[in-house]
Every structure is written in structure tokens, then in C-alpha cells.
Amino acid sequence: MIHVHCDLCGRDDWTLRFPTSRPSLNGSTPDPDVGAFRCTSASYGHHLQIVQCRHCGFVYATPRWEASTLLAAYSQVEDHLYLAERAAREMTFGRHLRALERIAGPAGGRRLLDVGAYIGVFVEVAQQAGWQAWGVEPSAWAVQEGRRRGLTMIHGTQRAPELQNEQFDAITLWDVIEHLPEPSAELAASYRLLKPGGWLAVHTMDVESWLACLMGRRWPWLMDMHLQFFSQRTLRLMLLKNGFQVVWSGAQGRYLRLGYLASRLEGLNRPLGRLTQTLVHHLGLAKVAALVNFGDLFTVYARK
User: Fold this and answer.
1) Residues of the chain with pLDDT under 50
2) Given this model, what pLDDT does residue 88 score?
3) Which residues fall within 8 angstroms of residue 26, CB to CB, at 6 or more apart?
4) Do 67 and 223 meet the contact criterion of CB atoms below 8 Å apart?
5) Which of 144, 155, 159, 262 is paired with 137 by a 20 to 30 Å CA distance?
């Protein structure tokens, strides 16, 4: 485990926001459980020590695993439940794409890079809408799943050799930035890969949302895989720091099948979750997709 400074202002002066749920993680610990790094992990409540910078207010996890250890874990991730939930994710990404195009304009054959693309659902949605869409993803399994569907998928990060001489009209990070050990450096990498006037979309959790404040340490997004906890204010500041002009920021929901939503509830409260799953399946509603928006997930659109 390594101690890290605030990635927004660089200082090492913080106040404790949430103590780790596992005291052993404060010192030496084995490599992280790869299962906890799946997109569909329900390991709510298992998290590192989370602190808040006294100077800029940024919330982050420290100590944490080294960047190389985290990348190795993500490269091994396999997530078959994500495949089963593909239909709802296609609806969510279709909604995200329409919102992006309202601000950035229609595809028109322009180039798009989805960072942390996982199995390439958004890449495929964007491609079908007329974008020349690529994805970059550290999970070898997820890249193979995307390539199986004929998508342009690069194994690695934005620093992959295949991207060094490329430039894009739009770059998207859907539910990615909170996982990154150095988010500011990642935004700088996006800036370099964008054409002048290009667009960046970042979607993440809002640690200052009403739900996060109400639930406190029971907020479900406090998980091992989440290292950074932005508010709309701190993400705006980090984007400005890296040369971006923030155009719009606000809460956005997502589509979830009711059966999947009930399984997530079990991660928070097992008896209630099991009861809800039984009820949803008994009523034949498990595959029904519903738009869910608790106000604690938001998107920022910024321009180079």
C-alpha cells in the first residue's frame, strides 16, 4: 500500500472522511481481489480509507495499492454478469450518446475514443450512430469480447502505442475516472489525444450529492475499486487545471433491469434484497428496464 497526495492540488493535508472498513488495509496487504474490480461487483461497504483535502476539498482514497498492481488486477477482470445486462446498458449508452450529440453535434463520420470501454457497448452504439468509434480497455477478456463483435478495441490505456499518433473529435470516460490512480494525468492524456475544439465527456459519482450526504458511510459507491470521489465542483476544477473549458455539468441517470437492480440491493441489505428479487421474479419484471436517477451520478461535457 502507498500513501498518495491530493491529485487536484498536490497537497498532503487531509481530514478523515471515512475510515477503512477493513483495518488491515492500512498497512501491508496482499494483492486486491480481482472480483472486487468487476463493473458488476456488489462489494458495497468494502473500501479503503477515504479522506478529504483540507485545501481544495477533493475526496480520495489513501493509502491504496500501487498503480501497477491496480492495472494488473483490471487486466485480469472477467465479468459475465455484465454480458447478461447488455440490453439495459445499450439503452443507457444510447441515452448518453444522444446527450453528447446535443452538445457536441452529430457524428458525421467523426472519430471517437471510449476510454475504459469494457466490452465495447458504447463503442458499438456510437459506431451504429455514424461515429468512427474506438475503445481502449485494460481487461484482456473484455477486449476480446468487443473484438468478437467486430469492434476496434485496443488493449491497454490511453498511453497504448496504437494511440500515440491518433487524434479524436470526442473522448468519453463513462464510470472510469473514479477507478484511476492518477485522474489528472488521465485527463491530460485525453487532452493530448483530442483535436483542437474536441469534446470530452466524463461520467462519475457525486460525493456531495444529497444521497451521498444522507447515506454517509452506507453510500453504496464506497468500494475498493473506487479511488477518487469527485463532486461537480472538484471535477470542474480538475478539468480547468488540464486546459478544458467546462460547457455543461449535471446529474444523469441510467437504465437498469429490475432483476439486476434487486441484486444490487442485496449487496446493501441481504434480507431486503432477497425479498425484492423474489417479488420481481414472481411478477415477471426481472427483465424490465427502468430509468433510475438518484442524483448521485453526473456527467460533465468539456471542450479542448
Assistant:
1) none
2) 86
3) 1, 20, 49, 63
4) no
5) 262
